[in-house]
Amino acid sequence: MCIKASLRAYSDSRLFPIVGNMLIGLLLLLNSYATATTYHPNDVCPADPQQLGDFRNAILTTHNSIRSQLAKGEIQQDDGSTLKGSKSLFALSYDCSLEALAIAAIPTTCSRQPVLDYSALGRSQNLAVLGDSSDKENARGQTDKSK
Questions:
Q1: Of 5, 15, 26, 91, which is most buried by a Cβ count within 10 Å?
Q2: What is the residue-averaged pLDDT of the chain?
Q3: What pLDDT score does 122 carry?
């Protein structure tokens, strides 16, 4: 099984464990959805953006609920302290063109190479590849080389 996740870096490292894990979960859900709808590419988003469907609405509602808690300063860190709130953390809306881009970025093989070149868009991506036990040996070798 190969899953590649594309994450945009957050500048506040205190938020990354919360927001990063939430984004990884969202990307995994979108990846599962993309896999399920691969043979029906016209089902990515409806013609009317207001009709997002239960799946997308559930993700969006959950994501915005966590963002709201974070903005109000209701998220607790591991050490028990509460994260500062934010006056500029607004609710998100769903973007079907970004969904289509995310689906297009998922490779059909586990090539460990990006499918799309985001540099022309002024963007970058981080790839995470999860695989079987043979990949663990390869990952150990890569980790040893980086030390």
A1: 5
A2: 67
A3: 67
